Amino acid sequence: MSWYVIKTKARQEGRAVTHLENQDLDVYCPWLIDKKGKREALFTGYMFINLSCLATHFVAIKSTRGVQKMLKFGDWWAQVDDKFIEYLRFKENGFRNMPLFKADQEVVIKDGPFKGIEAVYLCAKGEERAMVLLTILGRKQMVAIDEGLLRAV
Fold first, then answer.
1. N or C: which end of the chain has fewer CB within 10 A?
2. 88 and 126 share a domain?
3. Is the pTM of this model over 0.70?
4. Transmembrane residues, as ranges (predicted)?
5. φ, ψ (nearest 5 deg) of residue 145
6. CA distances (Å), 148 to each of 89, 104, 121, 133, 143, in order?
7. Domain count, the chain
């Protein structure tokens, strides 16, 4: 079996994945997921499909909603190595839930009432918030803050 490259219509990677999977085809589209859960294709406009025989499925793939065409280079269909797909899957799963900062890392607050104040990152608190240690009026205080407001020093 070989991995081929599909060119999707603009911002329709999700639609293409859904409709190709409904045809029992093995497809892969690596996603980037932001803190709010919104996903975006890593390779905007492209995805991969694993086939033993392209000719058998070519018409069905080309007429699938969200698919623009199968990618070709001259007379050859664009293919990628299995190891590349394995690597992408490993990276996608391995880094999705990693925190942006490490415990005891110095950070600066980028916006809001504490803008410009340095703090110490303690830990993540849920999906979007973090606990930081601020020095306010000479006392150390733990404060929950939106992780998107932090920047590493």
1. N
2. no
3. no
4. 41-61
5. -145, 155
6. 26, 17, 13, 16, 14
7. 2
Q: Are 105 and 152 in contact (CB under 8 A)?
A: yes
Structure tokens at 140: 């150390």
Q: Whole-angstrom Cα distance, residue 7 to residue 4?
A: 10
pLDDT tens digits for 91-122?
A: 877 655 556 788 899 999 999 888 999 999 99
> Could you list the residue range(s) of the whole structural domain that residue 39 is in?
2-95
Q: What are 133-146's pLDDT values in tens digits? A: 999 888 999 999 98
CA neighbor of 3 nearest in space, from 95, 89, 96, 92: 89
51 and 112, same structural domain? no
Q: Give the list of residues 6+ apart from residue 64 with CB closer than 8 angstroms, or none.
A: 16, 19, 20, 23
Number of CB atoms found within 10 A of residue 49's CB: 23
Specify the pLDDT at position 74. Answer: 94
